[in-house]
Amino acid sequence: MGIGIVLFRVEIGLMIQQAVEHVGGIALGTFAVVHVYPVALALLFAAGFLELSFNSMAQALVQLSAPAAIRGRVIGVFTMAASGMRMFSGITVGIVGGLIGIHYSLPLSAAVLLVGIVTLLSFAPKGGPAS
User: Fold this and answer.
1) Which domain, by its residues, includes 87?
2) Contact at 8 Å (CB) between 14 and 61?
3) pLDDT tens string 66-95
4) Which of 5, 47, 62, 118 has the most CB atoms in a 10 Å sphere around its CB?
5) What angle do CA 42, 46, 50 make, to 5 degrees?
6) Is residue 97 in some structural domain?
7) Confidence category of residue 38, pLDDT binned at 50, 70, 90
8) N- to C-terminal Cα separation, the chain
Protein backbone atom coordinates (compact mmCIF):
# COMPACT_ATOMS: atom_id res chain seq x y z
CA MET A 1 0.00 0.00 0.00
CA GLY A 2 1.47 3.35 -1.04
CA ILE A 3 1.92 6.40 1.17
CA GLY A 4 -0.65 8.28 -0.93
CA ILE A 5 -3.37 5.78 0.01
CA VAL A 6 -2.50 6.10 3.70
CA LEU A 7 -2.59 9.91 3.54
CA PHE A 8 -5.90 9.81 1.66
CA ARG A 9 -7.38 7.55 4.35
CA VAL A 10 -6.13 9.87 7.10
CA GLU A 11 -7.65 12.90 5.37
CA ILE A 12 -11.00 11.14 4.87
CA GLY A 13 -10.84 10.03 8.51
CA LEU A 14 -10.29 13.62 9.63
CA MET A 15 -13.33 14.81 7.67
CA ILE A 16 -15.53 12.06 9.12
CA GLN A 17 -14.18 12.76 12.61
CA GLN A 18 -15.04 16.46 12.31
CA ALA A 19 -18.58 15.63 11.19
CA VAL A 20 -19.05 13.22 14.11
CA GLU A 21 -17.66 15.88 16.45
CA HIS A 22 -20.16 18.50 15.30
CA VAL A 23 -23.19 16.19 15.34
CA GLY A 24 -22.21 14.90 18.80
CA GLY A 25 -21.97 18.45 20.17
CA ILE A 26 -25.34 19.33 18.70
CA ALA A 27 -26.91 16.16 20.17
CA LEU A 28 -25.47 16.91 23.61
CA GLY A 29 -26.57 20.55 23.52
CA THR A 30 -30.06 19.58 22.38
CA PHE A 31 -30.29 16.89 25.08
CA ALA A 32 -29.80 19.53 27.75
CA VAL A 33 -32.78 21.62 26.68
CA VAL A 34 -35.29 18.90 25.69
CA HIS A 35 -38.07 18.21 28.20
CA VAL A 36 -39.52 15.08 26.54
CA TYR A 37 -38.02 12.02 28.24
CA PRO A 38 -37.90 9.58 25.25
CA VAL A 39 -36.35 12.27 23.04
CA ALA A 40 -33.81 13.10 25.74
CA LEU A 41 -32.86 9.41 26.04
CA ALA A 42 -32.45 9.10 22.28
CA LEU A 43 -30.27 12.21 22.17
CA LEU A 44 -28.17 10.99 25.10
CA PHE A 45 -27.70 7.64 23.38
CA ALA A 46 -26.70 9.39 20.14
CA ALA A 47 -24.25 11.69 21.95
CA GLY A 48 -22.66 8.74 23.77
CA PHE A 49 -22.38 6.68 20.59
CA LEU A 50 -20.86 9.61 18.72
CA GLU A 51 -18.38 10.25 21.55
CA LEU A 52 -17.23 6.62 21.42
CA SER A 53 -16.95 6.86 17.63
CA PHE A 54 -14.99 10.10 17.87
CA ASN A 55 -12.58 8.68 20.46
CA SER A 56 -11.96 5.55 18.38
CA MET A 57 -11.31 7.58 15.24
CA ALA A 58 -9.08 10.04 17.08
CA GLN A 59 -6.98 7.20 18.52
CA ALA A 60 -6.65 5.58 15.09
CA LEU A 61 -5.66 8.87 13.45
CA VAL A 62 -3.05 9.54 16.13
CA GLN A 63 -1.59 6.08 15.59
CA LEU A 64 -1.49 6.55 11.81
CA SER A 65 0.01 10.04 12.03
CA ALA A 66 2.67 9.43 14.70
CA PRO A 67 6.16 8.39 13.61
CA ALA A 68 6.88 4.75 14.48
CA ALA A 69 9.88 5.65 16.67
CA ILE A 70 7.81 7.73 19.11
CA ARG A 71 4.33 6.30 18.56
CA GLY A 72 3.97 5.00 22.13
CA ARG A 73 4.90 8.36 23.66
CA VAL A 74 2.56 10.24 21.34
CA ILE A 75 -0.33 7.93 22.20
CA GLY A 76 0.45 8.34 25.91
CA VAL A 77 0.39 12.15 25.69
CA PHE A 78 -2.79 12.04 23.61
CA THR A 79 -4.56 9.79 26.13
CA MET A 80 -3.40 11.89 29.09
CA ALA A 81 -4.55 15.13 27.41
CA ALA A 82 -7.95 13.67 26.45
CA SER A 83 -8.57 12.38 29.99
CA GLY A 84 -7.52 15.70 31.51
CA MET A 85 -9.82 17.69 29.25
CA ARG A 86 -12.72 15.36 30.10
CA MET A 87 -12.14 15.91 33.83
CA PHE A 88 -11.81 19.69 33.40
CA SER A 89 -15.04 19.78 31.40
CA GLY A 90 -16.89 17.93 34.16
CA ILE A 91 -15.64 20.39 36.76
CA THR A 92 -16.60 23.46 34.73
CA VAL A 93 -20.04 22.08 33.86
CA GLY A 94 -20.60 21.24 37.53
CA ILE A 95 -19.46 24.63 38.87
CA VAL A 96 -21.32 26.64 36.24
CA GLY A 97 -24.31 24.30 36.69
CA GLY A 98 -24.32 25.10 40.40
CA LEU A 99 -24.38 28.81 39.62
CA ILE A 100 -26.83 29.05 36.73
CA GLY A 101 -28.48 25.60 36.66
CA ILE A 102 -27.51 22.42 34.86
CA HIS A 103 -30.08 22.95 32.09
CA TYR A 104 -28.21 26.10 31.07
CA SER A 105 -24.70 24.91 31.93
CA LEU A 106 -24.60 21.93 29.56
CA PRO A 107 -25.74 23.77 26.41
CA LEU A 108 -23.35 26.59 27.29
CA SER A 109 -20.51 24.05 27.50
CA ALA A 110 -21.57 22.51 24.17
CA ALA A 111 -21.66 25.97 22.55
CA VAL A 112 -18.19 26.82 23.89
CA LEU A 113 -16.91 23.50 22.52
CA LEU A 114 -18.46 24.18 19.11
CA VAL A 115 -16.97 27.69 18.98
CA GLY A 116 -13.58 26.28 20.01
CA ILE A 117 -13.70 23.64 17.28
CA VAL A 118 -14.66 26.16 14.60
CA THR A 119 -11.91 28.52 15.80
CA LEU A 120 -9.27 25.79 15.72
CA LEU A 121 -10.42 24.64 12.30
CA SER A 122 -10.04 28.17 10.97
CA PHE A 123 -6.33 28.02 11.89
CA ALA A 124 -5.79 24.50 10.50
CA PRO A 125 -3.72 24.17 7.34
CA LYS A 126 -5.93 23.80 4.29
CA GLY A 127 -3.87 20.97 2.76
CA GLY A 128 -4.57 18.43 5.51
CA PRO A 129 -2.00 16.37 7.41
CA ALA A 130 0.32 15.95 4.42
CA SER A 131 1.11 19.68 4.25
Assistant:
1) 3-123
2) yes
3) 888 999 898 888 888 887 777 777 777 888
4) 47
5) 175
6) yes
7) very high
8) 20
- Is residue 127 helix, strand or coil? coil
H-only helix segments in 34-101: 37-65, 71-100
Residue 129 lies in a domain: no
The answer as to whether 131 is a domain residue is no
Q: Using alpha carbons, select from 54, 32, 55 the residue that is nearest to residue 43.
A: 32
Number of domains comprising the chain = 1
> Distance between CA atoms of 28 and 51, rounded to whole angstroms?
10
Whole-angstrom distance, CA of residue 50 vs CA of residue 47: 5
- 107 φψ region: left (φ > 0), alpha (ψ -120 to 50), beta (else): alpha
Residues 6+ apart with CB under 8 A from 105: 32, 93, 94, 96, 97, 99
